[in-house]
Amino acid sequence: LVQEKERLLEFSAALRTKLDYFDELDRIAAAFHAGLAVDGAHFLPLLKRLDECINYVNSNPQYADSATFALKFRQLHSRALGSVRTHVLTVLRRAAAKVEAAMGEQMGGGEGVGVAGRLLNVAEGAETSVLY
C-alpha cells in the first residue's frame, strides 16, 4: 500500500510538471493584461517563460488542446513583441526630439533648426527602416 501511494505521488508530481506549462497561459496573460512594463524587471523572465511554454506545447502535439494553447501562446508572444516595438519607437522618438532640440539650441535658430537653416526632423520612413 505504501509503494502504491509513493507511485501515485510520483505520477501526480510528473503530471503537475507537465500541466504547469498549460497553466502558465492564464498567469502570463494576466500579467500582460495588467499592463506589464517592457522595461520592468519581470518582463524578460516572463517573455522567456512564454518561449518555453510555446516550445513545450509545440513539441507535445499529442496533448489535448495543444493546438489551441499553442495559438494562444503565440498571440501573447506577438502582443509582447508589439509592446517591445512600441517601446523602442517611443524611446527613439524621444531621443530624436532631444537631439533636434539640442542642435537647434546650438545653431541659435530655435527649436528644430539644423544645418544651413533646414529643419531637422526624423522621417517616419527612417523610423520604420530602423524597426524592421
Outline of the structure:
This protein has 132 residues and is mainly alpha-helical.
Describe this protein's structure.
It is built from four helices and no strands. It has helices at 2-33, 43-59, 66-107, 124-131.
Shape: elongated
Sheet of most strands: none
The class by helix and strand makeup works out as: mainly alpha
Percent range for helical residues? over 70%
Which value, in Å, is the CA radius of gyration?
A: 24 Å
Oligomer status: single chain
Order of helices and strands: HHHH
Low-confidence stretches: 111-120
Average pLDDT works out at 79
Layout of helices and strands, plus pairs?
Blueprint: H1 2-33, H2 43-59, H3 66-107, H4 124-131
Provide the descriptors you would attach to this structure in a database record.
4 helices; mainly alpha; 75% helix; 132 residues; elongated
